[in-house]
Amino acid sequence: MGQRMPIGLQLTGLVGSVIALMIVLLAVVLYEFKTSSADYQHLLSVTVKNSITLLEAEDDFHQGLSELRGYIITRDPSRAADTENALKKADTNLSTFADHAVNADAKARGEELRKAVHDYTGKTKDIIDLYQRNDMEAATAAATELRKKTDEIDALFNKAAEIQTTVQEQQLEKLNSNVDHIFIIVLVISIVGIIGIGVAATWYARKLAGRLVKLRGEVGKLGKLDLSFQGSRATWNDEIGDMANELLEMKDALHHIVRSIQTEADNLSKSSNDLSNSVQSQMQVSESIAHTITDVASDAVHNNTSIGEITSAIEQVSARTEEMSASGVHANQTASDAVDDANQGMKYIHQLVQQNDTVGDAMTEISQVSEKLVTGSDAIKNVVTTIREIAGQTNLLALNAAIEAARAGEAGRGFAVVAEEVRKLAEQSSAATNEIEQTITHMIESIQVAAGAIESAEEKVAASKEVTVETEKSFDSIQKRLDEVQNSIAHISQAVDHTANDMQDVVGNVQSISSVAEKTGANAETVAAASEEQSASLHDVSDNAESLAQTAAKLNDITSKFKL
Q: Where are the alpha helices (DSSP H) in 75-103?
């Protein structure tokens, strides 16, 4: 597993990609709009203003020409002054035009026109001086020559106006080309971004749904006590991966515990059978001893004539007593082993109870994580709603821009096209936002299904915990009965030892059996009573062994509910 990547951070990255795309689009539009605005501003403040300056210079020139004609007719000195002022103003405007010309050809035409007007002004002053000296012939000739110069200047004005018009058209064409360029850039970025985000969102949604479906299946199997499935470690380092890994560890732990319980139950059943067989053997020996002692008591009166037979019988009793003592030792060891096995089983049961508590806590944490997933999905839906509202506002702004462009007429046609494209992009953004919202809604439904499965698993874990508690109680009962069996076997062993000691006394005194016949009869009755007591104890041990076998069978029935 790589670096941890929580689900909240994953969804934040997906939403952040959408926001980043919107920011890039907005930045591109604002940058291109600013560039176009600067170009339009330059067109209006320089090129158009220069054209107006050229027109004003032409008007001033014609105004001076008109004042000159008035002076020739009226000889009014004020008209001569007005003529000179108008021509100077025209010269000043032409100088401004030439200085601010953005085209080399226009600048050259402006300089040529300014020089021609400057020369024209000097000739105008000469004509006025000739009229003031009343040199009519020279004045008339100069005026005729000036009219030719006037036609040349008018032609120069027309040529400069044509060049300036061409410059304006070129700049307008460049601006229109920039608008088309902006549209293409925004369209390409929008298409690529929407496709990329759509593919990423689809891939992420399918990946998340697949992981949740797999996790739900494993939880369902575990809830049915099926521990046979082979799980795999999660490859994603997030909350769902944590749940999958914890579930796998819980399954492995339960599998180990159930397998251990079954093994110990089989051992307990085997030990119980061995104990039962040993007790049956001890009971047969005890019955044989009882019959032998009865015969000894009934024949005590005739001991004086049957010493040989008594000696043989006592030897047989001694041998059987030794066998019974050896069987008692074996039974005591078997009971001790059974107690140890029961103690080991109790340890496993305690571990199983603790593991069930851990499983319950893990299920609670899984439920809490599912609730957090639903809360995070609701937050994402709020973000998607905000994006839809932004798209609506963008659509409204595009509509307002289209209305303003329509009011501007021909000059606003380019803005109208841009506004229409922005409106289309806003509609596409709104449609994409709806798709994202549908995807998130589907995710929420899947998470809710998973939450329901988790709740069912919690109920089944609780049921398993109850079964484990009952098993623990059964093992307590087994342990108590094994203690009783061990005590009974110890009592039997003591009785057998006592019997052996008595038999040794009988063997030591067999030579004087004739003189102590009555004492021998009393001892025989004592041995018979001890044998009866031993037989009763062996019956109790047999009953306890059967109870132990039944307990082992119940334990196997409980563990058989788990599928390994």
A: 77-99
* 563, β-bridge pairs: 226
Task: Write the DSSP string, 296-313.
Answer: HHHTGGGGGG-HHHHHHH
Q: Which DSSP string corresponds to 102-139?
A: SSHHHHHHHHHHHHHHHHHHHHHHHHHHHHHTT-HHHH
Q: Assign 439 to helix, strand or coil.
A: helix
Q: Which of 132, 156, 143 is nearest to 58 (CA)?
A: 156
Per the CB < 8 A criterion, the answer to whether 9 and 204 are in contact is: no
Output phi, psi for 232, to 5 deg: -130, 150
Mean pLDDT on 494-519: 63
257 to 222, 348, 385: CA distances (angstroms): 14, 7, 51
| CA angle at 482 for the pair 476 and 485, rounded to the nearest 5° | 150
Q: What is residue 226's DSSP assignment?
A: B
pLDDT of residue 500: 59
Neighbouring CB atoms inside 10 A of 9's CB total 12
Predicted local confidence at residue 117, as pLDDT? 92
The Cα angle at residue 457 between residues 452 and 458, in degrees rounded to 5: 95
Please count the other Cβ atoms lying within 10 Å of the Cβ belonging to residue 251. Answer: 20
- How close are the terminal C-alpha atoms of the chain, in Å? 28
> 558 near 467, Cβ under 8 Å?
yes
Q: Which amino acid, 538?
A: L
Domains of the chain: 7-215 (1.20.120.1730), 265-559 (1.10.287.950)
Q: Between helices 413-508 and 136-223, what is the axis angle to 10°?
A: 20
CA angle 472, 477, 482 (to 5 degrees): 120
pTM for this model (two decimals): 0.37
